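Structure tokens please, single chain.
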Amino acid sequence: MEVALITVGDELLSGDTVNTNANWLAARLAERGVSVTRILSVPDDRETIAERVATYGDAFDRVVVTGGIGGTPDDVTVEAVADAFGRDLAVSELARADVEERLAEIATRIPDRDLDVDVDREAALPAASRPLPNEAGLAPGCVLENVYVLPGIPEELKTMFESVADEFAGERRSRFLYTVEPEANIVPALEEAMNRFDVTVGCYPDREAGHNRLKLVGTDDEELAAGSDWLLGAINVSETPVSRDWGEEGAEDRDERSSDRDDGERPESAP
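Here you go.
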């Protein structure tokens, strides 16, 4: 399953808000074996959102749109998604009941707060869409064909996503290895692993942790295990995090190992 994420909000593009939603969703989907192949941030512009939703809806198995739902003037995501599918907005009775229930809970919890909420506006969703109740907030989300519309407030987003998480599943699996070897020293081994096995291998430096993290990704468990085992025998890697000082002493050690390998001491590859 291939998924695209569209995060909506002027505040994301101006740098006023860190886009933690995209990071969280991508990680959560990866845990479910899903391949997230696009992450796009767009402004609170109805036409732009509609165009991207229509394009991505045709190109991906699922599209998740976050942010821009609610009752303020810049909340145009729901209207834009309706535009993308040529639908009108219609008040969902299920969404309306959920909004009214949430308002009643707020009134009970905070009796001094008088909320002037346009319930019909909050409950207006694209015609024939499936409402998604907002158990952590007010504005409902919805599902229209393969497009999922979720809130932008992180707590609300996470709660609502978990209610539909079972609708996202894929075959991608991953394994992690760790090494203190510099990237340049392990490039040939990483390339050979990808040639030998049906996996991809990424190398992600983490100077704070003092290691490089290798991520092997594949759809076949046996190939993934074989690729991981081969790397464990071919280069200095570990299945558990390792660390070292990347300072001056570390640089000298790396130079020494590099010189040794130039003299032919690199581990032999399996036939």
